[in-house]
Amino acid sequence: MGRLVGVDLARALAVFGMFAVHVGPFEAAPGDVGGWVRTLSEGRASALFATLAGFSLMLIAGRFEPRTGLAGRQAKARIVIRAGILLAAGTALTMTNFGDAVILNAYAVFFLLALPLTRLRARTLAITAAVLALVGPQVAFGLRTWLGEPILNSINAYDPLERLCGVGVLDLLLTGFFPAITWMPFVIAGMALARLDLAAGAVQRRLAVLGPALIVLGYGTSWLALKVFGGAIPDHMPDGMPPTDAMAEAAGSGPPPGTRSFEPDPWLLLAAEPHSGSTFDVIGCLGVAITVLVGATVAMARLPRLRRLAGPVIAVGTMSLTVYVGHILAILALPGENATPPDANSTVLLGAFVLGAVVFAALWSRVFRRGPLEYLLNDATRLARFVR
User: Where are the domains of the chain?
Assistant: First the structure.
C-alpha cells in the first residue's frame, strides 16, 4: 500500500498547490515564500491533479489488468456516473463568482474521453499521451484560427451549458482553462503510470530520470526557442493565463456583451507559461507531475518516520474532492469576494487554508474512511451494480 500512500500524498500536494494559485499572494514581496509557492504551482498543480485523476480512473477500471466482462461493464458505469456527478458539481460551482477556474466539469469530460483507453497497456498509453502532447496544442491553435471568433461565438450561442454557467462544451474541449485537447495527455499519462508497479526499484529509477528530463526539455526548449526567435508572452496574458471575462470587463477591455475573445497568439506555441496550452507547457508539467509522484512514492516507502509525520497531509489526499470543493466555498465566503480572487490574499491566508484542510482531514479520517463528498460519490456509483 506504500505506493498508494505516495499517490495520496502527491494528491494532497496538488490540492495545496491549487490553494496557492487561488489565494496565495499575487504580488508577493521578494523572498515571500507564499509568492514563490504560487509561482511554482501555477498551472502545474492542476496538471498534477489531472495526472492523478488518470491514475485514480485506472484504480476503478483495473489497475494492472483491465476488468472485463460484467466487472468491466460495471467499472465503466461507475466512471460514467462519477463523470455525471462531477459535471453537475462543476457546473454549479462555475455558476458562482469563482467562474471558469473550476476544474471539476473538465474532469467529467476527461473521464468520458478516457473510457475507450482503459484496456490499453502502459506503453500504448504512454505513446498516446506523448503523441497528443506533441500534436494537440498545434491542432487546437489551428482549429481556433480556422473557425475564428464569429463561428466560435455562434457555437456558444446555441450551447445551453454555456448559457447556464459560462463554460460550455467548446470551452471544455477546445478554448477553456482546461481544454481536453491539450489536457488529456496528463490524464492518459496518469493512466500509464497506474499500470506500472511504482514500488519496483527499476520503475522508480526510470521515472526519477524521466520526470526531470521532461522538465528540462519542456521549459528549457521553450526558453531557448523564445530567445532564438525573439518572442515574448503577450502583455494581455499575465502569468500565461487569459483573463476571465469579468476581469476583462472591469478593465474596460472585454469583448462586447454576449461574445468572447478567442484570438490565438502564435507565440504561445513556443511559450511554456501556465495554461498557455503549448507542447512545451504540457511536457514540462508532465515532468513535474511524474517527479512529484515518484518522489512522494519513494519517500513514503523508504522513510517510515516521515510517513507517520505526514499522516494528516496524506489524509487530505484521501478526500481531495471534499477539500477542493470546500476551499472554493471558503473563498466565496471571504469578505469582498467578487469576480476576482480575494483582496486579502497573502501567505498567511494560504497557510490558514492549508492548516484548515490538514486539521479537518486528520480529525475526519480518525472516524471515517472517506471524506464526506467521497462517501456521497461512492454511494452514487453503487448504481453501477445494476448493470448487466
Answer: 2-386
